[in-house]
Amino acid sequence: MKFPEDVIIRPHITEKTYQEAAEGKYTFIVSPDSNKTEIKQAVEKLFNVKVLKVSTINYEGKNKRLGVHEGKRPDWKKAIVKIDTNPQPETYLSKGGKVVASAKKYKTAIEEFGIIE
Fold first, then answer.
1. What is the CATH number of the domain that holds 96?
2. Which of 9, 26, 82, 102 is the most exposed place for a label (fewest CB within 10 A)?
3. 3-state secondary structure of 3
4. Rounded Cα gap, residues 90 and 35, in angstroms
């Protein structure tokens, strides 16, 4: 079992991701061996938000050289996470057929991402 801090490495902030954050899409650099389920659980636990969708992109590291020395940058993975900006309480039917709503409170944005509104 991975800890959420091991899955999410850092936020990936560019002009495009800054604009997408207003729509509820946040971009993170994640561990290359993590899957979508682990990413979803890590974001929900770390930031207390409801995740609707996770998209991942794998990148190969570039070949770099400095003089005669050649090397390769590490491979990395990017995840775009869409959160629920209008979370409703979850409802389900209890044993007697009554509708019960859960009292879970989710945030509507990730403030730690560095977005100024």
1. 3.30.70.330
2. 102
3. coil
4. 25
The span from the CA of 92 to the CA of 116, in Å, is 36
64-91 pLDDT tens trace = 999 999 999 999 999 999 998 887 777 7
Q: What is the pTM of this model?
A: 0.79
- The closest alpha carbon to 50, from 20, 84, 81, 16, belongs to 84
What whole-number distance in Å separates Cα of residue 32 and Cα of residue 59? 9
Taken as a whole, the chain contains a residue count of 117
Which domain, by its residues, includes 17? 4-106
Contact 26, 81 (CB under 8 A): yes
Quick one: tokens of 61?
């590291």
For residue 98, report the phi and psi dihedrals to the nearest 5 degrees.
-80, 150
